[in-house]
Amino acid sequence: MGTAAHLNRGDIITMLGDRWITDRVPTDRFPNYTRGNAQDVMADPVSPLDWTFVWESGIVPGCRDGFVALGVFDADEYDLEKPETFGLFGGYFYNSLTQSRLFGVRSGAGWQAIDNAYFDDPSAVPPYEPADWHDSPRHAEKLAKQMGWFMTTPNVPEVDRQKIDAKAVRDSRPDFEGQTIAQIIGRARSLQRHVRAMFDQHAWVSLGASVGPGVLAALTAEIDPTMVTKLLTGVGGVDSAEIANDIWDLSRQVRHSADLTALFDGGIDGLGARLDSLGSADAAAFRGAVDAFMYEHGSRGPNEYDFYSFAYETRPELLWSAIDRLRRNDDAADPRAAEARGKVEAARLADQLRGMFKDNAEALGTFEAGLHSANVFMASRERC
After folding, report:
1. pTM above 0.85, yes or no
2. Do residues 48 and 97 both lie within one domain?
3. Largest Cα–Cα distance of the chain, in whole Å?
């Protein structure tokens, strides 16, 4: 079935006449939902197992925890059993538009700033309808303090610790081939608390990642509306870029080896077994690099927010296909080179803006703080 880009409570109630088994029912407090950004997370209908085991048992309460920790809401402003952080309607995943807008309202940025940040055409989004409970001086005071921290902190140590915790979880993974089904399920259940804790941090770090770009957008709107994107191209320290870089490096091994090129020319079906039978030095080095990739990134893959989907480790053909596409490119297509070019252009634009703001100390200081915040929190968002 198709899926609407934005839904209000009336639309959803009508749609629920033909309800999917894990669909949610919207509440009066959080009536509006959107596929904006949600379709980038999960474009396809969500598997019931993923929604109940991963989302409702980990990500959904974790997101609530993050908004509460930041000071946007109190915990009891959400439904106690099923916090309205995300929606599932017609089997499709939705973000809570009300939740996002109230971050803008209570932080002082305004709900329009949130709509402008998330949607290409804000006029197509259901209009914001204020309610008495939306205005909260107490939450506004909390968020004002958080905004100052977002603009000045040199790093986000909580996210750095989270990376260490994630590595410990991976390092402790047992050999599943020797385990019973009950043991495997027990291991999976033991990870639900990690999912909740990590999404708690992901939620408030993602909100933090919107602050700096919002400041920069306000400063540069009349100069060049596209400048923020250019300023933030090539943000350094982004962990998620490691996957693309590692796959690229694997493709270079294939491109520069006659043995491996012939292997891939034979197609990806049965490629793993054929690789192990080669016996050449190039094949051994490539197998070692593939194993290292699988250890670090094997749980990743297309549609990775639904654990019903195949990952690189469970369907190696996904990796072989990616390598097969990239091996045909020459070395100039290295993603690191594109990142480096982006950094050079971003630095040039930043210096240009510094020159424009040099006679306005307030604007210059705001620009420097916004640029600093954007770089710190965008890198942190991609880590957690």
Report:
1. yes
2. yes
3. 71
